[in-house]
## 1
Amino acid sequence: MTEENNNNTSASTPNQQPQSAFATLSKKFTIPPPPKTIADGVKRDYVLVGGLAATVIALTAGIYNHSKGGSQLTTNRLLKGRIWAQAFTVVAMGWYAFAYQRDLDEAEASKHRKVILT
């Protein structure tokens, strides 16, 4: 029984192992390098900065309203808004990573393209 298992494992090559779903997905999403300055980061990632600001403002307003004894309905709406702002920010981060990888793939493909002039 062990000889059969050894024969089966030696016949398969390590390069043909199936990749996990995370490994396949991580090839499609690459995090861009950090900007040199904060101003460059804000210019490049203004959507993420806006989502971050919306999340912080909604959270701060919700906590402030709750601590001052404001309406529970208002507090609930503010904190639900925070959840939506945070969800938007996470989706935007994924989109930025996907678009950055797509741009890298297109740049790599353009290096290997041959131009035939006739």
## 2
Amino acid sequence: MEHDTKTPPYLTSDKTSFAYVSARDRWPVIVTGAIDDTYRSVAQCDDAEKRDEGKTIIEELARLKYEMQHDRPLTPIRDDGHPDIALYNAELASLGTPTWFAVPWLYCECYLYRRVASSFALSTHWKSYDVFARQKINTFRSSRPAVLELAARYKEIVEADRKASTSKGEETGEEAQKKQLLFTEMCEICLWGNATDLSLLTSLTYEDIQALQGSLARKASEANILVNDLSAAYTVLRRAQQAGKKERRVDIVLDNAGFELYVDLILAGYLLSSGLATHVVLHPKSIPWFVSDVLPGDFAALLSALANPRPFYETASEEEELQGKTPAPLAEKEEAELKFLFAEWANLHAEGQLLLRPNRFWTHGGSFWRLPAEEKGLLEDLQGSEVVVFKGDLNYRKLTGDAAWDPTTPFTKAIGPLGPGSGINVLALRTCKADVVVGLQPGEDEKLRDGDDSGARKWAWSGKWAVVSFSEGK
């Protein structure tokens, strides 16, 4: 609140913004999905007490949906024992008595997921239930073609890095250029992996998901990266490597589970095998968040799928059974490449080179401008990293305060206290799925609007365009 930018935030009352579209169209669908998922689990439950408690949660979610659709005032979140509840309710009080269609977008969207989480947290039998887990793992399964393609590519890269590490002689200019190009490719794979954000793509078919992934789709999308600061980030990592720093850490503030977590792990493994990092710290969320965000359990579920890929990929889903479809069997080579990934990542995790470090700050209701005041310990921890990678649209919104900046505003200014002098090197990998955007050239936003005089920045809503923004804070 007092630590936020003075630039006005996007509001759900603004009918020209994606905030209004989200509140009116997306959020009711998401809550309905949560109700349906809980209902399925309740129906499969043998324990009468747990079943009754599940029905109560369903009633609470239905009431939440009603309040949202009828523009009722937001009510204080019930105390479930976590200190962030006081922060949420204090901010709500400072806003007066806002209704769902007249409130800052960022706060309201975070409030929605925090309120859903409190219904489960206050229960006895459903405390650890992830209402979005089923969707997340099913979407990863449907990403099979891209998963297999990247598994083969990753194995080649790791084996090439191991061979190169044993060779003698000075690095040639061509070799140095190849290394930077590979870094760029790995980061762009990581960037476009965000195209499978479940909170936005809830109606896509398997075929639609597959079309968003794969090398041909990535190549076609390179022209759609409006800001690309990857070379600056690479320079920082390469400089630390060449200086012989004993510990070179990269942090990744995660976004989505499923295929995106998979490509995040591809990037993490590449950074470690290439020597650009000695440790990678992954920052998941602590509660089910924005449908598809990573929880620690999603990491375990993904590794489990890779450890034994045949049952995961060859067992028909409920939808496939209804359609009479049988999944194609994995080839032996494909199975071996997936198991190679599991062995690599499980070993890196066991050796302490690949770490998970959740923090409740990531699910607070405000922007990252509040980090120095609200979570000083986390700030100091991130300052020990060579580069902190913030994945996805929500992290970008939080970095920039989800404010209505002029689109030519420098990224370094828009991230406020995490910019120059913060002690943190920030790299944001973001496909655009919200109104806020900074760092554009003069006239670029107008060109992308393409004569649309509605006042809406609709080009920034679909995930077609991306920005890769870097701030050197050290």
## 3
Amino acid sequence: MGVSIAGTSLFRSHNSTAEAEAKALFCGVKMAVLLKLQHIIFEGDCQEVIKGLNDSLASPCWRISPILKKVAHLVPLFRRIH
């Protein structure tokens, strides 16, 4: 079982829930990098974001695709990510 060690709240305008979820994921990954965490668990309920990140054959909407690419670029910095 994990422990929540950090959190944040941002006020931004987004065009969709998928875009908001993707940006939240990116912010969380950046925070985990800054905290030098190695084993992380991220939770989300937006299927488009989760599938876009986990499935290389998926083609997420053009608004979230660049955000997910930034997340994917940071993923190798962790030993284990769920």
